[in-house]
Amino acid sequence: MSKATRTPEGAFPGIRHDHGDCVAEALSAAEALCAQRGVRLTELRRRVFELVWSSHAPVGAYDLLSRLAREREGAAPPTVYRALDFLKEHGLIHRIESLNAFVGCRTPGQAHAGQFLICSECGMAAEIDDSRVNAAIDRRAKEIGFAVHSKTIEVEGLCPPCRDRAGEDGHGIG
Ligand SMILES: [Zn+2]
Ligand SMILES: [Zn+2]
Ligand SMILES: [Zn+2]
């Protein structure tokens, strides 16, 4: 028997962690990946990427658009969407359908369909990429004769810090 699935260490980083480190790490991974693939991380793509990485909570598409519109002229929605498409295509960010939002990927460069644990209280999202989940979907889909195009799974709930807070006041959430 394999051990129960658990969230990888640091998937929900502490509130006081140094997020600058996360951003720096993500940027250097993105730069390396683009160099390796011979594609350009243009200034706009880079800025969009930074904004998506501004926290561990997915950033809404409209929020991104308005922030960029304030920052720079010429950041028209189609331009921003093209930048988002580029980042998504190269696995640098993921789209969270249920929130119409984007979140940075911690393991870009490896083909994967993420499974996301999304906290409904603070909005943080943790990506877990469990090969057993992927394999189970593939197996069942094959049995049914279903052709899978996308396997992103979005799970809603409470992250560890929010669970702690909910426990502390004794009233739960709501
Ligand atoms: Zn961080
Ligand atoms: Zn990912
Ligand atoms: Zn939370």
What report would you give on this structure?
With 174 residues, the chain is α+β, with helices and mostly antiparallel strands. The chain has two domains: 16-105, Orthogonal Bundle (Arc Repressor Mutant, subunit A), CATH 1.10.10; 112-174, Dna Ligase, domain 1, CATH 3.30.1490.190. Helices cover 44% and strands 14% of the residues. Strand 4 and strand 5 form a beta hairpin. The longest helix is centred in the first third of the chain and has 19 residues, at 19-37. Residues 94, 105, 107, 112, 114, 127 line the site of one zinc ion.
The gist of it:
This protein has 174 residues and is α+β, with helices and mostly antiparallel strands. The protein has helices at 19-37, 43-52, 61-71, 77-89, 131-144, 160-169; strands at residues 59-60, 93-96, 101-104, 115-119, 125-128, 153-157.
